[in-house]
Specification:
Strand content: 15-25%
Oligomer: single chain
Number of helices: 7
Distance between the termini: 45 Å
Shape: globular
Length: 202
């Protein structure tokens, strides 16, 4: 059974202007070091706003323009710093295929494949992430009902199947640039992500 291991307060955000409680866990079903970031106000929300964010070293740390991950994380931090909420930072790089394989997939994408075709060409399914661990983390935090910040319907169905009630799903912003248009388009056409691309040129 998953339990909270430790909690420590750390300044976060672009200017370190916000503060979040970083929570570590024991007993998670994949034995990875996932984190919850809890922003002030979440403990006063009967139904907290939650973001399930999968680790993306290239986007989160190095601000790669090939995806929208870093922008989504920045949005979640800024939003929850104002409203309260919980970010579950899941160590599932490259939709679960790992960093090196993700870079191999990038090479295939340079030859014309979309992100899912590249993963398939490497012998992986479209998405290997297991969101049941997010449900374990929420239950360890005594959270059983949430508002979910995501444009990925699979996240909603996965955690509801694990006993977490999603009262409302709110899409993230659309973080289009000239480098990630085909990536965003593939997320819509293949994985049914709720991203409105009508206002941008793909």
């Amino acid at each position: 059974m998953a339990q909270v291991r430790n909690t420590v307060s750390i300044p976060v955000g672009k200017d370190q202007a916000h503060e979040a409680q970083f929570v570590s866990f024991t007993g998670l079903n994949d034995d990875k070091e996932h984190l919850a970031l809890i922003f002030k106000g979440a403990d006063n929300q009967a139904v907290p706003l939650v973001r399930l964010h999968s680790e993306c070293l290239t986007g989160d740390v190095f601000h790669s323009a090939r995806c929208d991950c870093g922008k989504q994380l920045d949005e979640a931090v800024e939003t929850m710093a104002q409203t309260g909420g919980i970010i579950l930072y899941l160590r599932q790089e490259g939709r679960g295929i790992g960093l090196y394989n993700k870079l191999d997939a990038y090479k295939l994408q340079d030859s014309g494949m979309n992100t899912f075709e590249a993963n398939n060409a490497l012998g992986f399914d479209d998405d290997l992430r297991d969101f049941s661990v997010a449900s374990q983390m929420l239950k360890a935090l005594d959270v059983t009902e949430i508002d979910l910040l995501t444009n990925n319907p699979n996240k909603t169905s996965s955690i509801t199947g694990e006993g977490i009630k999603v009262r409302k799903q709110t899409s993230t912003g659309v973080f289009y640039n000239r480098h990630n248009g085909h990536y965003l388009s593939a997320k819509v056409s293949v994985a049914n992500h709720d991203i409105d691309l009508k206002e941008v040129a793909i």
